[in-house]
Design a protein that fits this description.
This protein has helices at residues 5-12, 28-33, 56-68, 80-92, 106-115, 136-145, 166-175, 211-214, 232-242, 249-264, 266-285, 310-319, 342-358, 380-385, 423-430; strands at 72-76, 97-101, 118-122, 126-127, 130-131, 149-155, 179-184, 206-209, 222-226, 289-290, 298-302, 326-327, 331-335, 388-392, 405-407, 412-415, 435-436, 438-439, 442-446. By secondary structure, it is an alpha+beta fold.
């Protein structure tokens, strides 16, 4: 029988008279409107303190570490981003450069900016219109060429379900005394695979699980894990810098719950995986292609065989109450989890087939979101610090970008600060909605030369 330490704490006792935060005071009428407010409290003598836990939070974190196979585990209620910041904080003490795959989340780039770490950008090959993970040989070449590189922060799995060759990375990095950090924001569920296959924690020195992405946790619930105890002091210092001082107790309780739920329900996970495999088989029988995701929770359906725009197909699905994670014009990505219902998968397939067969949803001149060209960088940190100006996006070809710009989701830069803005970049940013780094149709560029 699993013991849910934080949930038990919240259910077992409530303050009768509150002269502390939060300001809703667990008011009766307020709790009717926001039911989670009943368990929304703060650090009190009978609760615990996330920054220095000794009670329920400490017990929960110890259980989590044991379950996932980590030396230490830390809950964060700021999503994966604060964990990423803390990892880069650790790396910054080892060297002023860090290998950053192009498919890294914007939080990685922001961490490099804040902490003065130069990202050494690396790109894998493009497969099926999607950028694959960099090879271990690429990583080794970069490390051998520059002693100031502290290691790599890998994204595994990425947004399309590509899992990095972490075993090979680990071999290379250990041989050269460098760090293997992993942003596993989309991979927490892999800890419950047989032999933890594909799970970042098997090889990484430090890694992040964004459990709310693919496990039954509230939004912003995440974990940071540690395998190398020599890094413990620096990591905890980083977490105390970047995590909120007012963590959400409901979110913390849901993080503990999600880990223990998955640990105790591997048969349920296997059943959902089987349903997902069946869905993949059937969807291909209808003529759809699938991106070869290595992660079963990523269902990337290729609409291009039908000559239609995945963005328009996604809009039609939304009219039927079916919402994807995101679409890039070619693929629609549906994210599954151990809580996915097989009936919902059947509903998705039926709606998708009908929409594509009945509708003429052609691209209408819009450019697919694709990954950027490989270009030389004038220096990420230099470009961020340089004098800048804003120019219309359609007039920016050949200029040095002064701030990252990309599409959200997947929150991956199409062009990074220090890189040359190409025609390809302009077409991608100009034909996609939900872009960042563009203000009133203008992009930030370096004024003059670096």
């Amino acid at each position: 029988m699993q013991e849910y330490h934080i949930l038990k704490l919240l259910n077992g006792r409530n303050t009768e008279v509150s002269f502390h935060t939060p300001g809703h005071k667990q008011d009766y009428d307020y709790c009717l409107t926001f039911p989670t407010a009943k368990s929304d409290t703060t650090e009190l003598p009978y609760t615990d303190d996330l920054s220095a836990p000794t009670g329920a939070i400490a017990a929960a974190q110890a259980d989590i570490a044991r379950i996932v196979g980590a030396k230490r585990s830390y809950i964060t209620t700021d999503g994966s981003s604060s964990g990423v910041m803390a990892m880069v904080f650790v790396a910054a003490a080892r060297g002023k450069k860090l290998i950053v795959p192009r498919t890294s989340h914007k939080s990685v780039w922001n961490a490099c900016r804040i902490l003065g770490v130069e990202p050494v950008i690396v790109q894998g090959e493009t497969v099926g219109g999607v950028m694959a993970q960099p090879s271990a040989e690429q990583i080794e070449r970069l490390i051998c060429a520059d002693e100031s590189i502290s290691g790599i922060i890998a994204t595994s799995p990425d947004y399309y379900g590509n899992i990095a060759p972490l075993k090979e990375y680990c071999k290379v990095l250990k041989a050269h005394g460098r760090l293997l950090l992993a942003d596993g924001a989309h991979g927490g569920h892999l800890a419950y695979e047989k032999d933890r296959q594909g799970y970042a924690g098997v090889y990484a020195d430090i890694w992040v699980d964004g459990v709310h992405k693919s496990m039954p946790a509230l939004t912003q619930g995440a974990l940071v894990h540690l395998n190398d105890l020599a890094l413990c002091g620096r990591l905890e210092e980083g977490l105390n810098i970047f995590r909120t001082t007012s963590p959400s107790f409901p979110i913390m309780a849901s993080v503990e719950y999600s880990v223990k739920f998955c640990h105790a329900n591997t048969e349920r996970i296997a059943a959902v995986k089987n349903a997902a495999c069946e869905a993949r088989r059937r969807i291909q029988e209808y003529g759809f292609k699938l991106y070869p995701s290595a992660d079963w929770t990523k269902l990337a359906i290729d609409i291009s065989p039908f000559g239609q725009d995945a963005r328009l197909v996604a809009k039609q699905l939304e009219k039927k109450g079916i919402y994807a994670e995101f679409t890039d014009g070619r693929y629609i990505l549906f994210y599954l989890s151990p809580m996915t219902d097989s009936a919902d998968l059947k509903r998705l397939m039926g709606a998708l087939v009908k929409i594509v067969q009945d509708g003429d949803l052609r691209a209408d001149g819009k450019r697919e979101y694709t990954f950027p060209d490989t270009v030389e960088s004038a220096g990420y940190l230099k470009a961020l610090a340089a004098p800048y100006e804003y120019v219309p996006l359609n007039m920016a070809e050949g200029r040095i970008c002064a701030a990252n710009a990309g599409v959200s989701p997947p929150c991956v830069p199409v062009v990074a600060a220090g890189e040359i803005i190409t025609k390809n970049v302009i077409e991608i940013l100009g034909s996609n909605s939900h872009v960042y780094g563009i203000e009133d149709g203008k992009i930030r560029v370096v004024a003059g030369e670096i």
